[in-house]
Amino acid sequence: MSEIVEWTPDAHELADLELLLSGAFEPLTGFLGHDDLHAVHERGTLADGTPWPAPVTLHLSAEVSPGDEVRLLDPEGLALAVLTVTAHDADGLTAGPIEALGTPEHGPFARLRRTPAEVRAALGGRPALVVTMRGPLDDLTEITATAKELDAVIVLLPLSYGEAGPAVVRAALRAAERLPEGTLVVPVPLAPREEPEIDLELREHVATAYGATEHLAGPEPVTLPGPPHRRGLVVFFTGLSGSGKSTVARGLRDALLELGTRTVTHLDGDVVRHLLSKGLTFSKADRDLNIRRIGFVAAEAARHGGLAICAPIAPYAATREEVREMVESVGADFLLVHVATPLEECERRDRKGLYAKARAGLIPEFTGVSDPYEEPDDADLVIDTTHISIEAAVSRVLGTLRSGGWVR
Ligand SMILES: Nc1ncnc2c1ncn2[C@@H]1O[C@H](COP(=O)(O)OS(=O)(=O)O)[C@@H](OP(=O)(O)O)[C@H]1O
Ligand SMILES: Nc1ncnc2c1ncn2[C@@H]1O[C@H](COP(=O)(O)OP(=O)(O)O)[C@@H](O)[C@H]1O
């Protein structure tokens, strides 16, 4: 008997899954494989010639073979669908039809969701003007005039994927108040595609599934990031043990608290290892997990405009990069400070006697001695604390925050 494989797709894949299940991506019935993808790229059709503009794919790193069934879970562990694998490639691309297991109810505004079939039934054969939107509709005259001309019901589809999702749904609800009675608002979690023409074509397909006689694409949102002193910021110190990360991080925290212009979340390395990451070792996998947890909490603080200070060793470049992406994906800024005090100086300080123990072979996998430290090549600030005072080190970081406008 083959065991049941479970897999949690990423946010983009889950959004596509929801549209596959709801019928918004009809005629697609599952995730695409290499042949279909090739045809989509080359000709804008599936391999059998059916018009289809964009890749809808799933990457799965588990070992599966054609015929296997994979239960697809949401991040909370709820099984959403079963995928029957028809192809699985070395790069993880996994194709096959899917079947729903339950109605997905996650995400804000779940009560507003309607499947395309439900919307078409509500239209009852009347013409529909479908408006897909990723930002506010400032001018409703074109929509009102077109709907009148077609004698059509207006259906607003706020494309609710991602950080701006809730705001675009609110914008649609507000616009509906100023549009004729009977205007429908249905959030659709369609993730944007990189190329604007492909994105537009995919929106056309989704609008058609929702019964569009005509489709209007709303204007692209103008995203003006707030001023830096109101944006979230993560100041992330990295460096060897004893390089001065905790000392400078504490000094920065105190200086910011004295100024009092920003809220500060301090994720002290020791506190993290005693609470958030209690029980983790110093293996590569556990260090990575530790850094991801720190990144997750810091990004949550920064999401709401907070300033978070973190000071772990964070020896791996790829994991630091993941944290940068996590933070930037919530609309906050990320500042990497490399405390580049050389190993000899850290070892000379040896405040906790750990280097001596590591040299004696009593601590295996000690960073800089028997475990790697990948020097950053993307640091926003580099500080060697060998010959400078603690105050001078703190002022350099504070100076960077002031000159970047993050602190006033
Ligand atoms: N094997 C090994 N390697 C490195 N460091 C070790 C090790 N074992 C214990 N310690 C102590 O743990 C502190 C580093 O923890 P971090 O959470 O910052 O490390 S990591 O980012 O997860 O790699 C580090 O503290 P700092 O000196 O504040 O950096 C060490 O005191
Ligand atoms: N300019 C400086 N900045 C930071 N620490 C310094 C500096 N000069 C000397 N030190 C000393 O170096 C040690 C750094 O330890 P710590 O801050 O715990 O490092 P880490 O958190 O990187 O392991 C402390 O004893 C600190 O007093």
TrEMBL record:
Q: Identify the residues that bind ATP.
A: G239, L240, S241, G242, S243, G244, K245, S246
User: Where would one find the signal peptide in this protein?
Assistant: none
Name all APS kinase domain ranges.
231-384
A single Gene Ontology MF term assigned here is:
adenylylsulfate kinase activity
Q: SUPFAM superfamilies of this UniProt entry?
A: P-loop containing nucleoside triphosphate hydrolases, PUA domain-like
Please tell me whether the keyword Phosphoprotein is annotated for this protein. yes
What reactions does this protein catalyze? adenosine 5'-phosphosulfate + ATP = 3'-phosphoadenylyl sulfate + ADP + H(+)
Q: Quick one: which pathway? A: Sulfur metabolism; hydrogen sulfide biosynthesis; sulfite from sulfate: step 2/3
- Keywords assigned by UniProt, alphabetized: ATP-binding, Kinase, Nucleotide-binding, Phosphoprotein, Transferase
Q: What is its EC number?
A: 2.7.1.25
Say if the entry is tagged with keyword Membrane: no
Query: Which chain regions cross the lipid bilayer?
Result: none
ATP-sulfurylase PUA-like domain ranges (all copies):
10-86
| NCBIfam families xrefs | apsK (TIGR00455), PRK03846.1 (NF003013)
Q: Can you tell me which family this protein belongs to?
A: Belongs to the APS kinase family.
What functional role does this protein have? Answer: Catalyzes the synthesis of activated sulfate.
Supply the PANTHER family for this chain: SULFATE ADENYLYLTRANSFERASE
Q: What is this protein called?
A: Adenylyl-sulfate kinase
What organism does the record attribute this protein to? Nonomuraea spiralis
Question: Which lineage ranks, top first, belong to the organism behind this chain?
Answer: Bacteria, Bacillati, Actinomycetota, Actinomycetes, Streptosporangiales
**Originating gene:** cysC
